[in-house]
Design brief:
alpha/beta; 2 domains; Rossmann fold; three-stranded parallel beta sheet; 45% helix; 288 residues; 14% strand
């Protein structure tokens, strides 16, 4: 999702994200299927890999090992091996950067070195600002604002929509709380009506709007009007903007902020952010 958002203005071929057990019928020998599984044991990813192989699709895999690596090794399918041993949500850099470089080397996009280097340097700077010792810690402040409420993430189609999904997932997995997301302009065709009645339920939600310097003027106007409508109907509203010069840096600065906010929120909730007990329980029962 993040890669497609990032390359939206540059990618000249269609690209989709598939999360199911099978692939669309159009997949054939002219299709490139990029298979990504951090553990190498994701059930639906393995199923889709086998389907792509049966259809004669060109395949490249990114994984740390597991059953998927074994399958690809037997079939002679190229593997980009990444470091394992952590939680999948920690691996975004290990997966995204090789994927971006691969797209460059295959001729789908132009050189990315400048943008990648800027992003790395920016993350180094932000890491100091988000450390527990920092007196000006935006991540900690936002976590304090959200604490006790349900995060509602609003992204912008084609710009920060995928980042809104990332924030939601991090609140789920790290902070162990429900979280939801939607996207401008679509949310103003439906969800906005859900706030028509000024009931107490709305004050349980804290809205975070993920802004972008690249957003269109009409989107900016929609956001301002939406903030006015929601101002007395939710438990709080906060806008956050990406930092950096390039689009990649701005996107990853938002991702990095969200990761730290979810971490600090877990600490505020007295919860260890690392284990994913319900996910492990689900996987165990599926295997039995």
């Amino acid at each position: 999702d993040i890669l497609i958002s990032y390359l939206r203005e540059n990618l000249k071929i269609p690209a989709i994200v598939n999360r199911g057990y099978s692939l669309p019928l159009f997949v054939n020998e002219k299709t490139l299927t990029i298979v990504i599984s951090y553990s190498g044991n994701t059930d639906e990813t393995l199923s889709s890999l086998k389907y792509a192989n049966e259809k004669g699709s060109k395949i490249i895999t990114i994984t740390s090992g597991g059953v998927i690596e074994e399958f690809c090794s037997r079939k002679g399918i190229p593997i980009i091996k990444i470091e394992g041993g952590g939680q999948p949500r920690e691996s975004i850099g290990y997966i995204f950067i090789p994927l971006l470089i691969m797209m460059e080397k295959m001729g789908f996009i132009e050189g990315q070195e400048t943008d990648i280097l800027e992003t790395i340097e920016l993350i180094k700077i932000l890491s100091k600002g988000y450390s527990p010792e920092s007196a000006e810690n935006d991540a900690k402040r936002l976590a304090l604002d959200i604490h006790g409420k349900i995060p509602l993430l609003y992204g912008i189609h084609g710009l920060t929509d995928s980042i809104a999904i990332r924030w939601k997932n991090q609140f789920n997995e790290n902070s162990k709380i429900p979280a939801f997301y939607n996207v401008f302009p679509e949310l103003n065709h439906n969800e906005i009506e859900g706030w028509d009645t000024n009931h107490e339920l709305g004050h349980n939600f804290f809205v975070v709007i993920l802004r972008s310097e690249d957003e269109a003027e009409n989107i900016s106007r929609q956001i301002e009007i939406t903030k006015t409508i929601l101002s007395d109907r939710v438990g709080g509203i906060r806008e956050v903007w990406g930092k950096g010069n390039g689009r990649l840096a701005r996107m990853f600065s938002l991702i990095y902020l969200g990761d730290f906010v979810s971490y600090y929120l877990a600490i505020l909730n007295g919860i260890d952010p690392t284990p994913v007990k319900n996910i492990e329980r689900l996987k165990k029962q599926l295997r039995s």
